[in-house]
């Protein structure tokens, strides 16, 4: 393992001779995870390589419309052999999932490409750039650096990665290059408005049921500066929640004008509580609060896992968060 | 009047010698109207010119945060004299409003810059480009063509114009140049995420109260293909609704995957019921259904006014709509 930063052209050089490549991303994949994996996979396949795209938790329903997602593998994995493995958008090696981690270990070379600044560099080669809004943007630069093919299907995945991880170019992580890349894709013929419609303007009735529950049950503290919601297994069962249904719900809490920080507590199958926290104020570092409970992430977007029951986890976390919020002003 | 297309560098040449300039846009201004007027106005003011920014209906609350909006004039206008007048983002001359049209008539030269393809070219000079997603994008190109100053305040207005008229770069009107311009603005130091936060990611708690009420009370018919909601005066009073609070709520109903048509019934102060109807299916013409009740509009977006009480109006309208929906399949 080495934490020396490897350039994208060096990574391209390492990929060029490889014939069999495995690519994975984090559990519970979002648009950036899936889009980065498939964007890179489809470019390498267009070069004639055999590419295994691995997602421990499979394809979220809302992203299944993207090209070739049927080729994504889920555990149990067959006994394939690979020359190189890549983990994308995954802050710690464990976050690829247990089976996927074992599958990646079959490769003599592991490449870690990420934009989570807390990523320790767990690969043999590491490219961790916390200034990039999406790993999809890094993958685009990698394809450019290597002269690798950028087909329409590749663009669909990378545009999805970039658009979803920037909230449609709205988050502060968006940089000039983000727009220039989107502009290059449109100039190359990408139908970005079709993607936007499929990503943002269509949702199942289940999602409205969840939104309704959240609006009915949300809790405010610290004069409305903290908004939170406890997403229980009882509700998950009631609405028969599917992966992707909760995407962006925390933003609805965050958007309320009085709110500085929004938190969702989610009861997982193993009884643990997944905490997702967002901040709207650079002075309020939610990754520090998540760090108190063994979690981490970005300053304005972080997570942690806590012991249940959910009410106790919420109370403990919100008390710590309120302490930080009250220090602001 | 001439409908010969004047190039942006010719328009820049016409503006350069002018010392006193009036700039207006359409009544009920949106982000593109206000942002285009003020983006151009602030650039010309930075060149030392006297610029009158005219909006018949004044500044919408949600855009008042933008730079120098306090300098926008509303009727009655003082008796200023101008060398050149411009109408921006305004498809017909009348749409600037009555007082504003009279004020623009004081100039010996009227310049019409627009992106509505139906614009007949009512100026002495006209630049109408229906391929552009926002007049703000045309104004940016005008400033570039003329070498006019593009300050941070100018960028704030033009970014707002472009972003709001493209639905944050999601509509099909978005082109490669749209992204390249946004990229240039970010490279020049524009804080676009602050603007996005103020434009899209901030809403009053009132708005969530309305959304919660809608999600709790919405009604489905025809196997979920019709979604509707009755927005009563009792609720309006309870949440103390303000103009703009209900913006886009019908889209939330429309986005549900099963839904083909969405309708909101709104109880008005005079006891009449305002009906807003949307269709997602070209075969379902909601303007025909609205026409049965004296209303009309477009095939996919229409309205009508009906006699109260609201429950009876809804029942009558939905029965007629369901009849049409059941003919589809
Ligand atoms: Mn990411
Ligand atoms: Mn416009």
Automatic annotation (TrEMBL), chains A, B:
Which molecular-function annotations from GO does this UniProt entry contain? 3'(2'),5'-bisphosphate nucleotidase activity; nucleic acid binding
Limits of the DHHA1 domain: 240-325
Q: Where is the DDH domain?
A: 20-162
Q: Which UniProt keywords apply?
A: Hydrolase
Question: EC number(s) in its UniProt entry?
Answer: 3.1.13.3, 3.1.3.7
Hydrolase as a keyword of this entry, yes or no, is yes
Question: Which of the seven top EC classes does this enzyme belong to?
Answer: hydrolase
Protein name as it appears in the record: Phosphoesterase RecJ-like protein
Source organism per UniProt: Prosthecobacter dejongeii
């Amino acid at each position: 393992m080495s934490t020396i930063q490897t350039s994208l052209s060096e990574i391209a050089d390492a990929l060029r001779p490889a014939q069999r490549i495995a690519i994975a991303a984090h559990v519970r994949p979002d648009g950036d995870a899936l889009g980065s994996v498939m964007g890179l996979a489809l470019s390498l396949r267009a070069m004639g390589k055999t590419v295994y795209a691995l997602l421990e938790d499979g394809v979220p329903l809302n992203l299944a419309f993207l090209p070739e997602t049927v080729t994504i593998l889920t555990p149990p994995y067959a006994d394939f052999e690979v020359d190189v493995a890549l983990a994308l958008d995954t802050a710690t090696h464990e976050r690829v999932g247990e089976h996927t981690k074992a599958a990646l270990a079959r490769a003599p070379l592991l490449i870690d490409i990420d934009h989570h600044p807390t990523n320790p560099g767990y690969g043999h080669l590491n490219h961790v750039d916390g200034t990039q809004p999406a790993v999809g943007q890094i993958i685009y630069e990698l394809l450019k650096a290597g002269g690798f093919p950028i087909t329409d299907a590749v663009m669909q995945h990378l545009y999805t990665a970039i658009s979803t991880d920037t909230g449609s170019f709205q988050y502060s992580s968006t940089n000039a290059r983000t727009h220039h890349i989107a502009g290059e894709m449109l100039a190359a013929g990408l139908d970005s408005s079709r993607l936007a419609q499929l990503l943002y303007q269509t949702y199942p009735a289940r999602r409205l049921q969840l939104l309704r529950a959240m609006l009915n049950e949300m809790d405010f503290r610290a004069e409305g500066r903290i908004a939170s919601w406890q997403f229980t297994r009882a509700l998950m069962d009631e609405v028969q929640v599917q992966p992707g249904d909760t995407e962006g719900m925390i933003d609805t809490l965050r958007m309320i004008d009085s709110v500085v920080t929004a938190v969702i507590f989610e009861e997982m199958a193993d009884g643990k509580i997944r905490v997702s926290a967002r901040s709207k104020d650079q002075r309020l570092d939610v990754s520090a609060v998540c760090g108190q409970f063994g979690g981490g992430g970005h300053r304005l977007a972080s997570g942690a896992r806590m012991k249940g029951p959910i009410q106790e986890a919420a109370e403990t976390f919100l008390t710590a968060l309120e302490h930080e919020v009250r220090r602001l002003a």
